[in-house]
Amino acid sequence: MPQTLYEKLWQDHVVHQEADGTALIYIDRHLVHEVTSPQAFEGLKLAGRKPWRVSSIVATADHNTPTDHWDRGIEDPVSRLQVETLDANIREVGALAYFPFRDPRQGIVHVVGPESGATLPGMTVVCGDSHTSTHGAFACMAHGIGTSEVEHVLATQCLLQKRSKTMLVRVEGVLGKGVTAKDVALAIIGRIGTAGGTGYAIEFGGSVLRALSMEGRMTICNMAIEAGARLGLVAVDEVTIDYLRGRPLAPKGHLWEQAVAAWRQLHSDADASFDRVVDISGDEIRPQVTWGTSPEMVVPVDSCVPDPSSEPDPVKREGMERALRYMGLRARQPIREIRLDKIFIGSCTNSRIEDLRAAAAVVQGRKVADGIRLALVVPGSGLVKRQAEDEGLDRVFRAAGFEWREPGCSMCLAMNADRLQPGERCASTSNRNFEGRQGTGGRTHLVSPEMAAAAAIAGHFCDVDEWQ
Amino acid sequence: MEKFVRLDGLVAPLDRANVDTDAIIPKQFLKSIKRSGFGPNLFDEWRYLDVGEPGQDVSQRPLNPDFVLNQERYRGAQILLTRKNFGCGSSREHAPWALLDFGFRAVIAESFADIFFNNCFKNGILPIVLSAGEIDRLFWLVEATPGCRLIVDLERQRVIRTDGETLPFVVDAFRRECLLNGWDDIGLTLRHADLIRAFEDRRRSEQPWLFA
Ligand code: SF4
């Protein structure tokens, strides 16, 4: 029987199955960060249990860590306690690798995993964070879990799971100028909706995906959760293998050869059937900007804010009206006229070296507009930061008036000091534009790094092809 | 985990679709390293007129009189009625912890986000999916009837209205068993420790690079 990639991965990890289909799934890689793990470690200890396999654990601190003045440590006592609790827990139980606060390799867990080679094709990867879907770019069965499940994985190396339905999102064609992986992700969510993928594992395929770098594929899988799917997948090809070669935790020597041979099987069979197939024309995707408080509220930059009065569904209409009020926008207002207060380039969606290069290319030789109060670049990890500095990108950003910060989640969720003030409007390369996500009353527009950079220079959204 | 068998509770209507986990519990409250104490900050940005920070005395904060949970008639509600895609967003379990800490034991919606749905079962909260039509009628009923209660019967998988109408729902057999008995997942899984060990040994010999 021909199988989809998801079915292959699923079958390869079933330890045991209950009569109703609930299966015990083996977990290969457990990524741990400070926010969702303290209660799990505590639960483990209270029950007198030991971790099953500590060599599956890779840990880092990212959500709470400050992005400047690292010499001062973490000034917020509550955040500091959370980070110190992670330190203490890892010191006690151990891990394959730990990148604590201020380690040169510290960073956002979903950036650190792939770049260290801790994420390998064919693995099950879990983390107490919904954007674990990012790792699916490596043909991993990767998804977010809650704290009870973090404890469950620590104690048993397994999770209780139900098999998902399968969806193939096929993006064929060639992307236009200024159109990035982020725009593809937003266009897909605009098409299927934020609940469109609920219950599905989405595999992304088609010529557009094949032509993307690993960074671009990670951006798309990262946003799978915003389409409601717990996990996104991309098949293994040469791009995957080239990315992994030589990474610190990737296999070496004859093990590498053996691994690569196995990885080459990680794709859907030619005639495998999916529960749902969505076809999207890559040629038609334009640079995207969200206008509302859900990632599905998205339109091309050269269009206007939609008009709720033309929405027939009353629940949807009310949602649109509420979003417009929150966002301080008018129906039919051109997107290009929306003026920004802050710019955020960062997050596990778009803080990898390729994202920073693309943004720097737009910024090069220009200045941030007068109306912009703060333009932030927060690299995804210490290693991304160092590489960007080696390439001189930090100087490009600084010369234009951007702040160049230490790595972490930062203003993606505003758990540290980086946040929006009530009413402030931000062009952000992150993944969520929910009410209050970047600070109470803050207004978020999700965009690509190129768009965020162009908006910083112009002071408002603009067609990014004009810049190239 | 506390058992869930049958619940006869007051219903509070939250008439919004796509209620996300950041709305259920804003992130400034996630810095706690405890599992409890999140109830006073459930729906914080909607419930209070000021900006919430950890460690405040909530009794001194100005309440938003328009927010449904602040209305006297819904005080003590144990069942939350809401619209589609409830719990979208983050995987943080703080969202079900906050609901539970506030007193909710069941949430009725047209649909739920996957991870949140799963997290509810791990904490003794029953998420119930009903059709859009049934939800509409429940909203109507709850708003028209002060003190409206529902009976949630997990054993027979049905919601019973005070007028006697019953609305059947379906829960996975395994999850239902766990909730009915208040079983701890980890204990259940560890009964299969030998199977896990055997699986792991085979995997280690077939794909040794995964264990480097
Ligand atoms: S960058 Fe944002 S979305 Fe990603 S892990 Fe951090 S907080 Fe979550």
User: Mean pLDDT across all residues of chain B, rounded?
Assistant: 94
**In percent, how much strand structure appears in the residues of chain A?**
15-25%
Q: What is the strand arrangement across the widest sheet of chain B? A: 4-3-2-1-5-6-7
Output the number of helix runs of chain A.
15
How is the biggest beta sheet of chain B arranged? 7 strands, mixed
Distance between the termini of chain B: 36 Å
Give the SSE order of chain B as H and E letters: EHHEHEHEHEEEHHH
Main β-sheet, spatial strand arrangement of chain A: 5-4-3-6-7
Helical residues, percent of chain B: 25-40%
Spatial gap, N to C terminus of chain A = 48 Å
Strand content of chain B: 15-25%
Which ligands accompany this protein?
iron/sulfur cluster
Overall pLDDT of chain A, averaged? 96
Biggest interface, residues from each chain: A-B, 77 and 58 residues
Helical fraction of chain A equals: 25-40%
Q: What does the overall shape of chain A look like?
A: globular
Could you state the oligomeric state of the chains shown? heterodimer
Q: How many DSSP E strands of chain B?
A: 7
**Uncertain segments of chain B of ≥5 residues (pLDDT<50)?**
none
